[in-house]
Design a protein that fits this description.
mainly beta, 109 residues, Jelly Rolls, 7 strands
C-alpha cells in the first residue's frame, strides 16, 4: 500500500504538536524526484541509530529536545532550532524529551 504524500501546491500543517506527541507517528509528508520531507516523532529516550544519507539534509526541531550527533560532535536541539548537514556524514538523534522534527532530504542519484 502506497503512503499518501501531499500533492504539489497542497498546504501541510507542521505546527508544534505540544501535548499530542504520544498520539502521532512519523510520516513522510512528500517526496519528489529530488526532495523528501518527513515529520519524525521521537518519544523521550528513543534513538535513531547512526547512519548517513547521500544528499544534504536539514533538521528542524518543532517540539521537545533532541541530542543530534554528527562528525563526532553532539549538540542539543530545541524547538525553533534548525541544523544543516552535508551529505554522507554519519549522524544519530536521541530524544531528550518527546520531540517532533521536520527532516528535509536532498535525494541524490
Amino acid at each position: 500500500m502506497a503512503i499518501p504524500h501531499a500533492a504539489a501546491g497542497q498546504v501541510i500543517d507542521i505546527q508544534p504538536l505540544a501535548g499530542q506527541l504520544q498520539e502521532t507517528r512519523t510520516v513522510a509528508l512528500f517526496k519528489s524526484s529530488g526532495l523528501e520531507v518527513m515529520r519524525l516523532i521521537l518519544p523521550a529516550g528513543k534513538t535513531v541509530p547512526p547512519h548517513h544519507v547521500k544528499g544534504e539534509l536539514t533538521v528542524q526541531c518543532l517540539d521537545g529536545e533532541v541530542a543530534f550527533t554528527a562528525g563526532g560532535r553532539t549538540q542539543a536541539m530545541k524547538a525553533g532550532q534548525l541544523l544543516w548537514l552535508e551529505g554522507g556524514v554519519e549522524y544519530s538523534v536521541t530524544a531528550l524529551r518527546d520531540a517532533s522534527l521536520l527532516v528535509t532530504l536532498h535525494l541524490r542519484e
